[in-house]
Write a structure and sequence with these properties.
The chain is built from four helices and two strands; from the N terminus they run ββαααα. It has a two-stranded antiparallel ribbon.
Length: 81
């Protein structure tokens, strides 16, 4: 049997009925799967240089150097198939 779930009410803590708890757990599984499927996006966002630095790189080193920088981030954090 699954662990019981509770909700806060004005009267205190109340147990969530099992049929409702099952639906909640299913939503958690769905949310976890979506988070995992889109993890590469968050990883890339954290790895990309700041947009100002990207523009500076384009100005000083050219578009090809910028493309290499972006490709390195994308290669390090590939999009799942």
């Amino acid at each position: 049997m699954a662990e019981k779930l509770y909700r806060a009410t004005a009267r205190g803590r109340e147990e969530i009925p099992e049929d409702e708890a099952t639906k909640i757990r299913a939503e958690w599984v769905k949310a976890d799967a979506e988070m995992e499927a889109t993890k590469y996006i968050r990883d890339r966002l954290n790895a990309y240089p700041d947009w100002r630095d990207q523009l500076d790189q384009i100005y000083h080193e050219g578009i090809d150097a910028w493309k290499e920088t972006i490709k390195a981030v994308k290669d390090a954090h590939p999009k799942p198939e």
